[in-house]
Amino acid sequence: MIRSSVLKSILGVLLLVCLVQAASAASLYVAASDSSSLSQSQADLICDGINDNLEIQKAIDALPAEGGEVVLSEGTFKCTGVIRPKSHSTLKGQGDTKTFLEFTNDGRIQVKMSM
C-alpha cells in the first residue's frame, strides 16, 4: 500500500514537471506572404516574400536561451540569405507538401556544429 501511494505521488510529480516544461517552451509562428489570411492573423511575424530569411531569423533570435520552436505556416518562404538556428531550437513547417523554403543567391540554412 505504501509503495503504491509513493509511486503514484512520484508519477504525479513527474507529470507535473513535464507539463510545466511543455507549457514554458517558447513557440513563435511565422506566416509566408502567400499563406492564408487565417495563418497571417495568427502569426507573430508575417513575411513579405522578399528576404523571408530575415523574419525567420528574427523569430529564431527572439527565442529564449533555453530554446523553443519557430513554426512556419503553409506557403513559400523566399530566402536569399542565411538562416542560423540556435541551440535547443526547432524550425518546423506544416509538412513537405505545404511549407516550402526557396533558397536563391547564397541562401541556406547554416548549422554550427559543436564538438
Summarize this, please?
The chain is of the alpha/beta class and 115 residues long. The chain contains 3 helices and 8 strands. The protein has one domain.
Question: Low-confidence parts lasting 5 or more residues at pLDDT below 50?
Answer: 13-23
- Overall 3D form: globular
Strand order of the largest sheet: 2-1-3-6
Work out the radius of gyration.
19 Å
Tally of helical segments: 3
End-to-end gap: 49 Å
Number of strands: 8
Structure description:
- This protein is α/β, with parallel strands linked by helices and 115 residues long.
- The protein has one domain.
- Helices cover 35% and strands 27% of the residues.
- The chain is built from three helices and eight strands.
- It has helices spanning 2-24, 37-42, 52-62; strands at residues 26-31, 45-46, 68-72, 75-79, 82-83, 89-92, 99-103, 108-109.
- The chain has a four-stranded parallel β-sheet with strand order 2-1-3-6.
- Strand 1 (26-31), helix 2 (37-42) and strand 2 form a beta-alpha-beta unit.
- The chain is globular, with a radius of gyration of 19 Å.
Any descriptors?
about 120 residues; alpha/beta; four-stranded parallel sheet; two-stranded parallel sheet; 3 helices; about 25% strand
Write the layout of secondary structure elements.
Blueprint: H1 2-24, E1 26-31, H2 37-42, E2 45-46, H3 52-62, E3 68-72, E4 75-79, E5 82-83, E6 89-92, E7 99-103, E8 108-109
Parallel strand pairs: 1-2, 1-3, 3-6, 4-7, 5-8
